Amino acid sequence: MSLRILPEATVNRIAAGEVVERPASALKELVENALDAGATRPDIALEGGGRDRIMVADDGIGMDPAELALAVERHATSKLPDDDLVHIATLGFRGEALPSIGAVARLTIASRAAGAAEGWRIAVAGGVKGAVEPAAQGSGSRVEVRDLFYATPARLKFLKSPRAEHDAALDMVRRLAMARPDVAVSMSEDGRSVLALPAEGGADEAARLSRLSRVLGRDFADNAVPVRAEREGLRLSGFAGLPTFTRASAAMQYLFVNGRPVRDKLLFGCVRAAYQDLMARDRHAALVLFLDCDPEGVDVNVHPAKAEVRFRDAGLIRGVLIGALRAGLAAAGHRAATTGADAALAAFRAGGAPSATPGGGYRPIRPGREALERAAAFQAPAPGQAAFDLSPPPACGLAEEGTPFLHTPPDDALPAHDDDLPTDGQPLGRVRAQLHDTYILAETADGLVLIDQHAAHERLTHERLKRALAAGGVARQILLLPEVVELDPLACSRLCARIEDLALLGFGIEPFGDGAVLVREVPGLLGNSDVAGLVRDLADEFANLDEGLALQARLDHACATLACHSSVRAGRKLRHEEMDALLRAMEQTAYAGQCSHGRPTYIELKRADIERLFGRR
After folding, report:
1. Does the first or last residue of the chain, that is N or C, have fewer Cβ atoms within 10 Å of its Cβ?
2. Is 558 in contact with 535 (CB distance < 8 Å)?
3. In which element (H, E) is residue 388 found?
4. Is the distance from CB of 159 to CB of 51 less than 8 angstroms?
């Protein structure tokens, strides 16, 4: 086999394959060029998902004839004036986009420099460059790409449907628009407008949230909390969705580094760590975060499409990101996603609207419920509040036939109604009843709140456990009669390997022959719970955890399991004072809007929502 130099056309097409993967990647390069040129209102048009035509027009600084001829040469760029690859302050800098696109498509560029009397035009088709010619062109540039990959037909086979390519292109434009709320962006597909974002008049937090609301929807703005942090020249800002505002995938996680949209494994890992005990494991957070740092601290030249970055101090990035996310979510207190109320209203409407009966009324809808089997105990009450009854709770399960649908305490157990009105200092309202011995109904100043008593108490218990761990360990109680728990040999081995971890949680466990452990001590808050069931659940929990997981992460997972077992269960009658104590504690506890598994602890309906259900609005 003899060595040879590849022809220039082949070299250019190979290089194009690194930069131009699909229409969305070609469009990304063109829009970045427009933003780097100072455009304030880039206009984008696609045909056939970008395969047939891509057009980007901008009002940037434009180019003169000499610059236009040089722009389609490989490695020609205006963005590295001193050849410094450390201080990169632009989105594009490689000088490969235009010649790469021209190598595989029909490229036309028309441009007029600011203050110039006339515009100029150049065309490139399959890598063959034409002459620079005069052209009618307003101030700025207009780049048009037709017949993408016509010069490399094999690449066409790997493109997806026009609809899929359009979606990828739109997602890319939306990402760039999020980073620049001061820029107006418009996009059309086959002559139909698909995106029209006005400039927000700045880049401050309010302008950024307004742009995010237009791009991601009003629900995101209503269910996101601000995230801010600054440390050692590193600045983090943005918005993080509440733990109850989740998605089935990570598609709604948008991360930016120095204004550049990235998909970085380190950053995604930090997001998972920050939300790890706040949502279900198969759900993903929705957030938009902007990380600004010294260009010397990040290498953006590790990927041809600039989608990945490398940080000089990954530990600093990890600490700032996780800490800021945790602080922002904790500041939200007991807030839960407003989408829960929308789902509840949809359920009441039986598929979108109340169903009318022949007599002109509405068919009543009996809500269903899920009774969760858990052990019961409650935390020490605040001064002046009644404690939960720590006696063994009744068996859980659905209410038996004939049991009351609504359980309320005796009249003499309730304060006078005039003195029991909800106040502004009690956003979760005042207790009015207990439904199905599982849900607490509370009246607020402007509506009602329905609380899942088990889920709410589970979060309170979880936070108590975490505080106890931080303070040096969970208080223990010695069992009068040690309990032997039989397990399969593998589960027993896993549990015995974590004896020291479990000791921090208040367990005194030791091996007891083959396939069994002896439990001598349990956490003090367990009360008379099912110790054997809890130990088996902990063994299963450790089976699902990676062996390389840090101690703190293992303890967090174990805390969630312990909190679930040591919380008041569904199906237990509560006194009015107990229910009120639960609501007041929720209002003062971080993350109280969701349980340890990510389920909402309450749903709020405003008076206006209720009036719509009854046709009053």
Report:
1. N
2. no
3. none
4. yes
Q: Are strands 253-257 and 287-292 parallel, antiparallel or unpaired?
A: parallel
- CA distance linking residue 522 with residue 22, whole number of Å: 59
Q: Which element (helix H / strand E) includes 508?
A: strand 508-511
Which amino acid makes up residue 594? Q
Which stretches of 105-204 are DSSP H helices? 153-156, 162-179
Across all residues in the chain, what is the average pLDDT?
80
Tell me, letter by letter, the H, E, C secondary structure of 284-317. Answer: EECEEEEEECCHHHEECCCCCCCCCCEECCHHHH
What is the C-alpha to C-alpha distance for residues 145 and 98, in angstroms, rounded to an integer? 10
Burial of 282 (0-12, 13-18, 19+ CB in 10 A): exposed
DSSP state of 557: H
452 pLDDT above the threshold of 90: yes
SS3 state of residue 106: strand
> What string of DSSP letters covers 1-64?
----PPPHHHHHHHHHHHH-SSHHHHHHHHHHHHHHTT-SS-EEEEEGGGTSEEEEEE-S----
Mean pLDDT score, 60-64: 92
334: exposed, middle or buried (C-beta count within 10 Å: 0-12, 13-18, 19+)?
buried
Q: What confidence score (pLDDT) does residue 107 get?
A: 95
Confidence (pLDDT) at 373? 34
CB atoms within 10 A of CB 71: 23
* Secondary structure element (H or E) that encloses residue 197, with its range: strand 192-197
Q: What are phi and psi of 447, to 5 degrees?
A: 160, -145
- What single string gives the DSSP state of each residue in 415-447? PPGGG----TT-TT-EEEEEETTTEEEEEETTE
What is the identity of the amino acid at 152?
T
d(CA 43, CA 39): 10
Q: What is the pLDDT of residues 83-114, one digit of tens each?
A: 555 566 677 665 678 888 998 899 999 999 98
Report pTM. 0.73
CB atoms within 10 A of CB 183: 22
Instruction: Decide: 25 and 149 in contact? Cβ < 8 Å.
Output: no
Better-predicted residue by pLDDT, 336 or 356:
336
Rounded Cα distance between 508 and 492, Å, is: 15
pLDDT per position as a tens digit, 455-497: 999 899 888 888 887 777 777 888 888 889 998 888 888 888 8
* Element at 612 (helix H, strand E): helix 607-613
In 3-state terms, what secondary structure has residue 579?
helix
Residue 566 CA neighbour count, 13 Å, CB half: 26
Looking at residues 225-234, what average pLDDT do you find?
Answer: 92
CA separation for the pair 115, 248 (Å, rounded): 51
Count, residues in the chain: 617
Which residues, including other chains, have CB under 8 Å from residue 375's CB and lie 6 or more apart? 393, 526, 527, 529, 530, 533, 534, 565, 566, 567, 569
| Spatial CA neighbour of 574 closest among 440, 452, 442, 417 | 440
